[in-house]
Amino acid sequence: MVAGLGQPPFRASQLSRHFFGRYTDQADEMTDLPLASRDPLARALLPRLLTAERELSCDAGTTRKTLWRTFDGALVESVLMRYPDRVTMCVSSQAGCGMACPFCATGQAGLTRNLSTAEIVAQVVAGARLLATGQVPPGGRGGLGGKVSPRDRGDPGGSSPRGDTARVSNVVFMGMGEPLANYASVLAAVRRLTDPVPEGMGISQRSVTVSTVGLVPAIARLAAERLSVTLAVSLHAPDDELRDTLVPVNQRWNVQEVLGAAWDYAAATGRRVSIEYALIRDINDQAWRADALGSLLAGRLAHVNLIPLNPTPGSKWTASRPAAQREFVRRLEAHGVPVTVRDTRGREIDGACGQLAASASAPR
Ligand code: SAH
Is the Cβ atom of 246 under 6 angstroms away from ligand 1? Predict the structure, then answer.
């Protein structure tokens, strides 16, 4: 394409380095390009895909949420979380979502469209740019209290091997959308995020987590890619009766089939699967369900990430009582299942999936 614009082909690598390595799409920052070709090249190859509609921060500036508007007016969210040992970007893979989980704000709104690979990658580049330009203070624990040790914070991304927090170390596909329902774009985004500069951003595959409601054929396809990305499965219930309502796609692929695909993924990749479980008061947090979950997972290459429910506006559901949460953890541990409780960053900025987009499109 660069050659087609009448430029020497090596300018392609220069542009890629600017975008993936220096996180800029601004022509005036590309001083290694001849003045006259900067604008035409940047405009043709790095069009502005996302425009920040709203930006919110909390935890002393170390949690940053952005609501983006796409070229065609769709709204998507991304969140940057800077910790002492890593920086995690939570990105959206679709505008909206078609999976209709009743506790999830995005699920309520339905699917608008798939995001392109570039729209997914642009969210991470934007976060990397915030960090690189010194706009995010070094991470502390944040202001939410609670006795969560750094190791037990429950962020599925794990820690950065380098402990370098001036760059994005982890990416989780836990923003809006079902990543495996937008398979081709998500997979290409994973490549762009993890290939070394200039082909990509050079993030470790092991630090990328793809979270799914449990689309069994797509999990099998992902396993066959031979990547070392982490798979997260949003289980939320150990029994089909309840999971049919909490994660409606369970009516298509049930608990047994989803976990079967998860264990195949673990076997193919050697990666521990993260089982996501939003604790909802008196809905899925009973001790007997903890035991049922423990039996399903005992001896497997799995880790449970308990997420205190972040209630969506108008929801009749809320987070579990602390005693129920403690008992749930205790019973899983009694089955020998590793379990962490997710740090609940970003509550005061509508941190949960889809909440900011929902509030922006509602009359204010
Ligand atoms: N569609 C994918 C990824 C996006 S959601 C999936 O379902 O896995 C990322 C995680 O946040 C999922 O585990 C989802 O169930 C959970 N989640 C959604 N809304 C939530 C809420 N209000 N409180 C807590 N967790 C929520």
Answer: no
